[in-house]
Amino acid sequence: MAMHKSSSGSALGPGGLDLTQAFFKSIMNAEPSSPTKRHTKISVVGAGNVGMAIAQTILTQDLTDELVLVDAIPDKLRGEMLDLQHAAAFLPRTRIQASTDYSVTVGSDLCIVTAGARQIHGESRLNLLQRNVTLFQKIIPPLVRYSPDTILLIVSNPVDVLTYVAWKLSGFPSNRVIGSGTNLDSSRFRFLIADHLDVNAQDVQAFIVGEHGDSSVALWSSISVGGVPVLSFLEKQQITYEKEMLEAIHKEVTQSAYEVIKLKGYTSWAIGYSVANLARSILRDQRRVHPVSVLAKGFYDIEDGEVFLSLPAQLGRGGVLGVTNLHLTEEEKHRFMDSATTILQVQNHLSI
């Protein structure tokens, strides 16, 4: 079921009166627009709280020429599309479409997947995951069919395993399948450190890597503020700090999402900004470094099994352009390996 309403149509009224020629007259010796001009298209699969927060942030930040929404519930989908279209006078010009049919995504530069099955009371995490695999078997193949050159950005949870599932189902090279991973976790980490030091979070460089979840790894050795490495600075200044304090900050990062869900029922705004941030780096070829879920095989002694985990990766029009060659302490490396083992154990029980 297609529900297309173009923001650029010139027909007016029920009779379809075309006013283009009346309003605008071509200048002398004009040629048609150059076909080489870049037209950007983003498709968002899943019009729930997360998908709509992402769509709204992408629109307000003027990141695309065309935005497509896909969902299985037609009435809600049409309502969301119309609600966004009605804000056209307050937003950068973007063509907004919505459909339950994946053909509407044709020619997408970036496909963002937020759709996921909801957990039933008493259901095991593994059973929920298997239901999400079944859902992805209906989502990924049509996205690939209609946009064979797209980049897949997976947001659905558990994001690391589902990014692996999307990679397997798509047949894409690994650089074109990315999970949102710990990009948001790292933002929470930076906020908490900035809050402790009373500085702007944008001046804090800090990464959470590994699983987007309870086994994530805080890279304390990588933290810097205004270019100053924090831990080595404290040691040189002979300022003592408690390791328990560091662990408490990391625990607060891992518990942040649970707290938001407990208080308002779901998370939406922060993940919306996080994913729009990734979309900007990819589509505008910013070559910025983000901690996102990538194929981690070959990094930090992970040689057995194909597992997606978050590592600081450089993103651009080609997707993942490279992974930062970080120096991990032995403890950080050990925790990262534990994170990989946790994900692999879950993957081994899946049927794709």
Automatic annotation (TrEMBL):
Entry annotated with the keyword NAD: yes
Record-linked InterPro entries: L-lactate/malate_DH, L-lactate_DH, L-lactate_DH_AS, Lactate/malate_DH_C, Lactate/malate_DH_N, Lactate_DH/Glyco_Ohase_4_C, NAD(P)-bd_dom_sf
Entry's Gene Ontology BP terms: lactate metabolic process
Annotated active site: H212 (proton acceptor)
Ligand binding (NAD(+)): G46, A47, G48, N49, V50, G51, D71, N132, V155, S156, N157
Pathway named in the protein's UniProt entry: Fermentation; pyruvate fermentation to lactate; (S)-lactate from pyruvate: step 1/1
UniProt keyword list: NAD, Oxidoreductase
Domain of life: Eukaryota
Lactate/malate dehydrogenase N-terminal domain mapped to chain residues: 40-179
Enzymatic reactions: (S)-lactate + NAD(+) = pyruvate + NADH + H(+)
One of the record's GO molecular function terms: L-lactate dehydrogenase (NAD+) activity
HAMAP family: Lactate_dehydrog
The name this protein goes by in its record: L-lactate dehydrogenase
Origin species: Phaseolus coccineus (Scarlet runner bean)
